[in-house]
Fold:
Amino acid sequence: MRVLLSCLQSLKQHPLPAYDFWRPYFIGGCQEAGIEYLEVPEIDWVEGLIYSPGIELEKWRDRLWDKVLAFVRKEQDRQPVDFFLCYLYPKQVEVSAIIELQRMGIPCVNFFCDNVREFRKVPDEYRHFSLNWVPEFEALPMYQKAGIPHLHAPMPCWVPHELRTVPTTETDPPTFIGSADILRRDLFGHALQSGADFNLRGSGWQAGAESPINSDLGSRPVPELIANQISTLRTHGMRGLYHKMENHLRPLQHPVIPETRIGSFLSKSEYIRVTREAMVAIGVNRVPTAWNSDHHPLTYSRLRDVEAPMMGACYLTEWTPGLEELYDLGGEIESYRTPDELAAKLSELKRDSARRRLMRERAQKRALTDHSVANSLGRICKRLF
Structure:
C-alpha cells in the first residue's frame, strides 16, 4: 500500500499557530500500519494559508498542484499510488486537481480537525473528495445533512514507543498545560474558587498578559467600529454579530488566578514529562468562536483527549458529546462539566492513587489500540477498497 501524504509540510516556519506536529503523527501511523508514504518534494503546503482570497492564492494553488500532478504521474509509471491522504483547508484545495487524481484512479481522503470551529456547513471544496475524515462527533450532522462521504475517526495522534508505558512516579501536582484565553481563565478561576488544587503551565497566564476583556469602544473611530461590525456580519452572520456584542456588553467576570498557581513555560521534553507524570493531567474542550457566546461556548473533543492517555496520563477532561464513545468515563478517564465538578473530581482522584494507576493503564491501552492512526487508516482502506 502506497499513500501520498500532505499534512501541512512546509519549506520554512510560517507565522501561524503550531502546525508541524501533524507530519510525524501521520508518518508514524503509516509506518505502524505497514503503509509506504510518499511526499511531494520541495513544495510548501502551508504557504497557501497565509494568503487571503485573490490572485496570490490562485498563483500558489496553480504552482503547487501542477507540481503535485507531475510528481504523481511519474510515480504512477513507476509504482501506482493507492490513495492520497491530506489535511487541507478549503482555500488550499484545487478542485480540478482532486478530480484529476481520482480520474487517475487515486482516491482522495481529506482530514480536517476544526469543522465545528470553522464552518457552519461543509465547504463545497470538500464535496469532491472520495472520503472525509471527520474527528469531531459534533460535526457529523453537518456531513450527514450535506450527503458527503465521511468517516468518523479519532484525532490522529502518534507517540514514540518509549512513551507507551505508564510512569512509575508522579512528580507534579494536577496540571493543565496550554495557553490562556478568556474561557479557560473563567473555568479555572471559578474552579480554584471552589477549592480545586492544580497548576497552570503555558503562555499568557501571568498577570498583565491578558488583553482587556472589553475594549474601550468609545475611544475608537466610528468608521472603524462600523467597518468591524460589517465585517463580522458578512463573515459570521447576525448570530456572530449578536454574540460579539453580547461578549462586549456582558463580559465574563472571572476570578483572579493567583500567581502561585502559574508555573513556567514548558519545553517540548518537559511538556511530555509533566503530561505523563502529573498526578492528574487536565483537559479543556471549550473554545472561543464567533459562532457562540462566551457564556455558552462551543465544546468538542480535542487532540489532547487522545494524546494524553496515549502517553500514560491520568486524564480528567471537559465532557463533550461523543467522549463516551472514545472512553469508559470513570474507568479509563474522568470528565467534568462545571468548575465545581472539576474541583470535586480532582479531589477524588488525589485521594486514590490506586485508581489513578488503573486509569492510566486502561486509558493508555484503549488509546493505543482503538484510537491509533494505524487503526483509523485500516478503517479508511476498508471504505476505499
